[in-house]
Amino acid sequence: MVLPESMVPDVFPDPPVTPKDAATVVLLRDTSAGIEAFLLRRVVGMAFAGGMSVFPGGGVDRRDAAVDIAWAGPPASWWAAQFACPEPLARSLVCAAVRETFEESGVLLAGPSADSVVSDTGPYAGARKSLVEREFSFAEFLADTGLVLRADLLRPWANWVTPAEEPRRYDTKFFIAALPEGQRADGSTSEADHAEWRRPADAIDLWKAGQRGLLPPTWMTLTELGEKPTVADAMATDRTISKIIPKVIREGRILRPVLPGDPAYDRAFGHLDARPDDTLG
Question: Nudix hydrolase domain: from which residue to which, for each copy (predicted)?
Fold first, then answer.
């Protein structure tokens, strides 16, 4: 895989930027042709991952930590154990995952009770817009509508951290979730100019053909999910989550991300080891 030069800065931040906590959700559905994932193409020119096809997600809002959220499913302590993080952060990540999925795709992982989920999100269209504009918190939205956050509809999948070379870094927890019956993902967000459902293998083929842009966390996740015959199989997967931090190496004028396990990973320049003249110029 080759990275666009625009995605790696000419000068590396020193010291590296502290990653911001974020959550992303891979929405899945079954079709006669196999499992499909929902992808958004971020608007070209955005400060981070512009033009890339990604899953719905975004940064944690400080209000996502509210402890009075109506909650169904594994408690924050369980999520904290899965992602090896403090309980308050785990609660925030789950809330951010559900909130961002609703904001960016219109899919709402919540219901009137602990064992139900809304089938028509149309009545909440106005609230969705207000959430995007941060007019109120997700906890306030749930309280006002009498909805319960369905943490049991999510499964932990991975934890990716932006390379140290990047000026914008995120410590992102990846979740997967099945598209609730009756709901549809619309991708009506100002951050994306295209939305689509794709079989993982097809999305990767489009990337290889240069028709889609995929970052390492996206193509790796698609590759893993492409091995699952059904959404139920994916949701039943028992995974051990560990942080994955790619590095960037230069081969002439080509920039290539490498992952732990790649023979080139240990010889890749760490941020603090980079030579002063080791820039993109």
Answer: 19-228
